[in-house]
Structures are given as C-alpha cells and as structure tokens.
Batch of 4 targets.
Target 1
Amino acid sequence: MPSKQIQVREYTVRAHKRLIHTRTYKFICKQCNQPTVRESYATLRPLYCEFCRPSKSKAAPTPQKKKPRAMKYVSDNGKGQGE
C-alpha cells in the first residue's frame, strides 16, 4: 500500500481525568474587608471574596503592527522612476 505524508494542523485529545489539588484559604477581602473562606487551586492567596471578585472580561485585542510599505527611491540622475 503506498504511503504519503500529510501535514496535520488540528488534533484531538482523548478524554481523561486530572487530579487538581485545591487549598482552602482564610483571608480578609480587599474590597469589603470581611473575613472570608475560599477554596482555590491557585498558588497565591486570593484577594477578593466571591461577591467582590471582579468579573473576567475579555481583554481588548492588541492592535497589530502594520507592515511597512514599499517605497520608490529616485537617484540623482533620474534612474528608478519608471523602469
């Protein structure tokens, strides 16, 4: 059977289970100054309680730099104008 090479741009991953270690944090909320308890898998202590936590909004896309345009240069003796 003949073989051929193809370039794969997309791939799928088989479903699997992960074990995520969570930790219970006791802290004082930065906004409402109330003692609170929150479970998180993050390594840093959370700053806000569930009610004061700012919503995650999508960041505005950064504008892409435009590519430089080709420029036409004219030499002193006139060459390069309509060649």
Note: The mean pLDDT is 79.
Target 2
Amino acid sequence: MMKLFSGVSALVVASVAGLATAQAETRTITFLFTDDDQGYVQRMADLSKEFEAANPGVKINFVSSGYDAVSKQLPVQLAVGEGPDIAKITDWQLAPYYLDMRPYMKDADAFAKLHGSSLDQLRLPNVNDPQSINGYMASQTLNLPFVNKTLFEQAGEPLPGPTAKFSEIVEASARVAKATGVQIPFTMDRSGHRFSGGAFSYGSTYVKDGKFSFPDEAARKYIADIYSWTQNGSFPKEMWGAAGGSQYKNMGDEFVNGNVVTYLAGNWMVNPFQNKIGDNFEWTAINAPCGDAGCYAMPGGTAIVGFKRTKYPEDVAHFIEFLGSEKVQREIAENYVILTGAEIVDPQYKLKSEDAKAAMRVFLDNKKNVPQAARDFERVKGGSAMYQQIVQRMSQLIVGELTLDQTYKVLEDDVAKINEAVAVKK
C-alpha cells in the first residue's frame, strides 16, 4: 500500500499495511482527521473506538496528520485510487471522489433533515447528484470583526451598530486608537479569504459566467478604500507589508495583547481568545460590515466525507451517520465551540467567558448573512490561486511597489492566467 501522508509515523503506516492480512475477518476503514485543537482530535479518535465497540467486524484506523499534508497530498492520493476511506477536508474540488452514502444509510432522510441545506455546500453542479449525501459539514466559519470593548468605553465611542458600513467601523476604530494611544486601529489577517468579505459587501461577485471576474468596479472601490486606510494609519501598512509574497499572517496575538481596537477574523478565534485574554479587557464580535450590496460575512468551513474508493461503503455510511448524529454533533459543537452544519437547537457552548458567549451569539446570528456570490466562488476551481494573488498584489500596493491603477491591471492579468489554467485542466 502507498504511504498515505508524509509526516505520519512509520508505526501507523505499518499498522495500516499489516491490517490487510486481517481483512477477511475485519473490515478496516481508514479515517484521516486534522485539526489544531488536540482535544478535538483525541475525541474523534475516542468516537472511532466507540463505533468499533458497537459494530463488531469493523475496524476504524484513525490517522491524525497536519493540515498541509492533507491539503497537498490527499488530492494526489485520490487521483490514483489511493488514500483514506473517510477524511476531514476543506477542498470542495474533491467532489468527484465522494461516495454517495444515501443508499447505504440506515435513515438517510433523517440525516438529511438534520443537516439541511449545509449538505448543498458539498455538492458541485454536474458532479454530484442533487440528492446525494456525501458526508456532512463538520464546521462552518464566518469572518466578523472582533472589537476591544474596553478601549471603546475608554474613548467614549459607541460600538458600531448592526448596520455600520465598513468605512464607519474603520473610522470609529481610528478615533478610539487616537483617544487611547493604542497602536493599531483596524487590522485583518493577511489572507485572501479575510479580505473577501468586505469585497462582497461592496458588491463584488468574483465569478461571472463561470469564470473569475476580478477586480470589478465594486472590488476596485474596496481596494481603493483599504489603500486609503493604510495611508492615513487606520490600517497600519506593516500588518500586510511585513510578510512577503502570498504568505499568510495571523494578527490574533496583537488583539490578545490589547494593541488592536478592531480585528477582522472568525469564530474559530472565540475559544482561544477566552483562554488568552482572560480578564485583561472586555471584547466581543460585531455584525458583518456593510457596503452597497449588503452586510456580508465571508463563509468557510470543513467537512467529513466518504470516498468512492472504499471497499466497504455500507460501513463508511454507518460511521458517517454516527459521527453526524444529533447527539455527537451537539457534543462537538458545545465542547469545542464549533458552528456545525447540523441544525443543533440551542447549543450550550462550554464557554467560561461572558465575552465569548456574547461573541458566539453574534456569529450565530450572522449565519444568515452569507452572500450567494461567496458560495458560488467556493465551487469554482482556482479559488485558492486567486486568494494568493490578492494577498500578493494588495501587499505590493500597500508598501508602495504598485500604484492603484497598476494593482488593478496586474490583478486582471493574474485572473486571466488563472482562468486559462483552469480551462486547460478541464
């Protein structure tokens, strides 16, 4: 058997190979899982053991690996008929390899009802059957601004309201920073994904007639505004300029240290913030920034899916049905502060901090504020490459290597090349 992923221990790989001799007695399913929260990883390993105990004859070979190994090697493995039976993924372009588990489930209709429209996110047009059940959304993420409430109070500045424009949030943050002496009024992670929520609020669509179309007029207006904020100090240029190329950079520690008034990130930061900030200051999340098109939160997510390559589709379906059950999904949501794809009624998140509880309420309320254009963008091959070019070109603009007009032109050229590359691959 081919080695699944670099970085997986030799012991684990050897155990996978050794199990082949026992398949006459035991049906072995390999489950590849990745997450930064090691407690969550361990719980998924324990759940695998629970399923084994309730299903004699089935062995779950639980493999935990780093995100980079999964994202880079899983597509290659699946393309040659190798890889796991089940995996946690973030790449929707793996849709051609999905197993439709609906025929094998014990109660497919109940599963579909619990997970609702979130199952649509996994299905690609003209690839997956519109009624297929390929897995479930393990988490849904949203990008929203976090604000340091203590700084706003010290400055005598009210928190931005539920329909505040992006520009109004940045301007209010600048006034707070000036009044309190804090270094950074507004920032966001150095990420194309983090950049994009504001672009959609301004009215950009990213995709037109099945191809990338960027930067359109709305995106140009947004880019120009960001540039102006970096010029007047509202969005310090060092935040993006300090790293090179398309490299990702997280700004969370600056917020934790009290150096940032407003930080655009996502709900995955709520749990770390409650642990790291403690009682140092009060904080919360606020509604998605508004623009001419609306008040939009940029979506993202992870999924746990089964693959057609499996020898045991019925066992895979039953395991997915177990993991995706209301009981398990409620436990995962509450203990690890996760917005699941399953419609869990009134989840009781295990949050010690009142600030964290308030922030999660805001994220839950903003689940409805996801633009369809962002969903469409998720389904088009080449999106990751476009994100990378946005980061690189915005960085060049911010540090003065490109003018605004040059930035628009090089982005157009970048997107044209991505469209050409995608067309060739088809």
Note: The radius of gyration is 23 Å.
Target 3
Amino acid sequence: MKEYIKKLQELLKQVNKKHLIAAAAAVVIFILGFISGCSCSGRGGAFGGKNLGVSEALDSFAQVIPEGSQIVARFTDNRHSLFYLNSGRLMRFNAKSKMLEEVIPYEINKEARVYYNEKDDVQGILSAQLSDDEQFIIITAVTDKKEDDDEEVATATYKLNTSSMNLLPFTPPPAKAAPVKKDSVRRSAAPVKQQQAIPMEDLPEVGDIVQPEDNTPKPAAEPKPAPAPQPEEKPAPRGQETVIVPAQ
C-alpha cells in the first residue's frame, strides 16, 4: 500500500494543473491497478505488486480514457504505448512505467508551432492518424489564431516517430488519382476521309425555265408481229388467162 501511494504521489508531481484531465485518467488507472492487485494477489499482475502485462495494462487504460477521445495508436511491442487525442491534445500512456504524459510538439521540436488557447473553439491538434507502416503518427495542428473574418485557419503537418519520439515537418503526398475503368475510356474516332469536290455544271441563267429531267423508266417497245405468209402465186395454165373487169 505504501508503495502504491508513493507512486501516485510521484505521478501527481509530474502533472501540472493544465493537464488535469490527463492526471485524473492516470489516477483512475492506478486505482484500477490497486484493486486488481488486491483481488489477484494470488497470481500477481497489478500496479502495486507485479506489473500487469503490456496488453492488459493498455486494455485497462483504454476503458477509462475521457469520453470523446480518439484512440490513435496502440502498441504492444517494444513501444508499449497507447496514444489518444482529446480536446486538441495528444496524450501517451506508457504501459511499462504506467505514466501518462502529453505529447507537446514544440517541446520535442522547437521549430514546431502549435496554437493553444482554451477560449478558442479551434486550437491545438486537429487530427492525428497512424501512418500505413505504423511507424509514425501524422499530426495536423493549428499554428495561428483564427480571426473573425478568416474562413480557414493556418495549419502545419508533422510526423511523430513512435519509437524515438522525434518530431519532424511532414509534407503529405499528393492524392492518387482514381483508376479509370476500361469501359469509360473514350476511343478516338477514325479520321473521316475527305471527299473530292465534284465540279458543278454550268447553271442556267436567271429567267430560264429548266424542265426537270424525266427519269421515269419507259416501257420496253413491243415486238412487231411477224408478216403473214403470202400464198405462192403459180402461173395460170395455158388457155386460162385472167380477165380484169373494169369497175362500173
């Protein structure tokens, strides 16, 4: 019990009034650990006795972080930490030392600029997210006060090394263009062949009446009938002559 109280006193000395929320969360963790130590003294694993495992300590702390907080990263490897964002401040809980501390960018890197003012709605760290390789936390922070006539606030982006806790400026890569579907690719039309200009015939002068050309198909000419066969004239027999009688 004395050892537990001593650790709690050391924690309170390291936390100033500005970090009251973080201090309250740390106190809750110690209380949970003490209760767990009393109930599990037979098998150990508590803040007051043997240390909790990293995973168990992180799970216990995640249950008591302030309402509205965003858990940014949770590491059970040699980093043994849990990072969360609350009210524009990035907090880190160390599962080994059972200590809770605020990650203040300008204390890590003097060139970093972060605007804090509890009276302003927009202040501190706006967003924090883990990189794809899980090695860095990308932080976007407000760098200056927002005036009433300003539509946007000045911001800066940094990357926090979760292993060395170094902070460096970061330039986000340009957004990748969405892949174009094959079906939506427009195919260029084949070039249109230019037709040769047909020379125009001489147009009739004004006033001339031009009859339209009759293009109606004409019926085929009927075949002429074959001539009727004429009887063959045989010479009259002798003694019989043809007498022509004149008309009266």
Note: The beta strands are 70-75, 81-86, 89-94, 99-103, 125-130, 136-142, 155-161, 167-169.
Target 4
Amino acid sequence: MMNPIEYKQLKAFAAMDGGLLGLIWITAMACSVGQFKYESLSMVSMILMIGSLIFTVKRERRFAREIREDKGFTFGQAWLYTILMVIFASLLTAIAAYAYFAFLDHGFVSEGYTKFLGQPEVKKILTGLDKGSNLSDMILQQIVIMRPIDWAMNMLTTNIFVGMVFSPFIALISRKKRSL
C-alpha cells in the first residue's frame, strides 16, 4: 500500500516519463507524416512505436530500482504507473497533433492518403474487402473532412486504448518484489 506522499511521487515520475514517451510518439507521428514524402520513414515510425514499449519498461524498472528501492513495486503500482505514463504521453501527442494539423499540414496528409488510396493495387484490395462499394472513396471523403481537433482526438483515444491494452503486460514485466 502506498501513502499519499508515495502516490504523489509516483504521479510526478509518471508525468516526467510520460513526457519523454510523448516525445517518442510525436517523433513517430512526424515520421508517419513524412512517409508520404520519404517512404523509409514508415519503418522508422514503426521502430519508434515498438521501441516505446521497451522504453516504458526500462523507465518503470528504473523507477522501481532507484526510487522505490526496498519498498517493492507491486503489479498494481506498476500498472498505475503505466496507465499514468500513457495518459500523459497521449495528451502531449494529441496537443502536438492538433498543432500540426491546425497550423502546418495544409492538406499534406490528405493529399498523401489520396495518392496512396488512388493506386490501382490499393483500390483492388479495398474493392475485394467490400464488394460493390467504393471503400477507398468513402475513406478519402472522411479524411478530407477531418478537422485538426478530429485528428487530435483520434490520436488521443487510439493511444490511450492501445496503451491500456499493453499496460498489464508492461506492469507484469516491470514489477519488483520487496527486498527483505
């Protein structure tokens, strides 16, 4: 059981580590946007997203080792730490996404998706998925009408959802038994 001071300490360190995790996710987002110009950036984005899981485990283990020391770091505490980290990182990423789409994008992402979905092989795959409809045209219509806040909220909810799915596994790896 944690006392209020330990809980505040956990929140503070989760916020700092969440900020660092958010910077990794923002870099991954930038690479995802940049993939429309340089295709190799999609691989960098994927490596950053997978690496963010490793980063999360390493930062939690550091917290357990250096801050919690002999007090132990239970599964519940590790899970709370992961959830808080994901929430802070998601908020930071959503703010960056809003800023990008509101002030810098000027239709670049929509244009990139239009080119990608306009390719004959992609149209063939999407037509095969949903016979008799223009799925690629419907997707494009949705992308074109998305406002910056829509992009940011989509990113926020997706990051939180994926983070919640992975958080029990990260907590299981990060927990630390109490020293006797």
Note: The two ends are 16 Å apart (CA to CA).
